[in-house]
Amino acid sequence: MPHVVAGKGSTSASAPIPVEGELLPGPSNRAAELEKQWIKLLSIWTDSVFEVPGLGWRFGLDPLIGLVPIVGDAASALVSFYILSLAAHLQVPRSTLARMMLNVGIDYVVGAVPIVGNLFDFAWKANLKNAKLLERAMEMPAHERRKQSVYDWLLIAGGAVLLLALFIGSIAAAIVLAHWITGLFTAAS
User: What are phi and psi of 27, to 5 degrees?
Assistant: First the structure.
């Protein structure tokens, strides 16, 4: 779709001109479509690419990667945050971004609990939920979606800092728990 070049009456196929208040210009229609397809592909691979024969239960790589202590949950959270950053680039409303972050936060916090978290990861499909939220938000006409601002990026950054704090806290809790268990065994001997 051609765009009017600022200060000229001609059109150009160049990138869109930023609107006042935007941090970054939004993606072109083709780029937006590719990003939506990429998010859908990532969500399928992380949450529902495999099926248990005969039962119809679907799961993805997320619960399998989550079996690796600490690193697996962090890797899953990074993929989820990549999806969030693409959603922010696609200029979804802040309320949608907040719901997406809540899905990622629940996935990370509960998923970090040994055994229970691994079982939870098979049922809670945060990336699929986020892909559906994104699709619904993108169905709105572009003029109804508000433009990205610094606050949207601060929301994403705040969520990342919160998850990083949870990650560090979970490592610290695991160390304290391991030290406590070791103390029980050494005291018993």
Answer: -75, 155
Phi, psi of 59 (to 5 degrees): -150, 165
Q: Dump pLDDT digits (tens) for 58-99.
A: 999 888 888 887 788 888 888 898 888 888 888 888 778 888
Q: Is the pTM of this model over 0.70?
A: no
What's the length of the chain? 189
Q: Measured in Å, how far apart are the chain's first and last C-alpha atoms?
A: 76
40-47's contacts with Cβ under 8 Å and 24+ in sequence apart are: 40/131, 42/79, 42/82, 42/83, 42/127, 43/83, 43/125, 43/127, 43/128, 43/130, 43/131, 44/128, 46/76, 46/79, 46/80, 46/127, 47/125, 47/126, 47/127, 47/128
Residue in the block written with tokens 């229970």: 116
- Cα angle vertex 103, ends 98, 168, to 5°? 95
4 and 11 Cβ atoms separated by less than 8 Å:
yes
> In 3D, which of 185, 47, 52 has the Cα closest to residue 125?
47
Rounded Cα–Cα distance for residues 63 and 175 (Å): 23
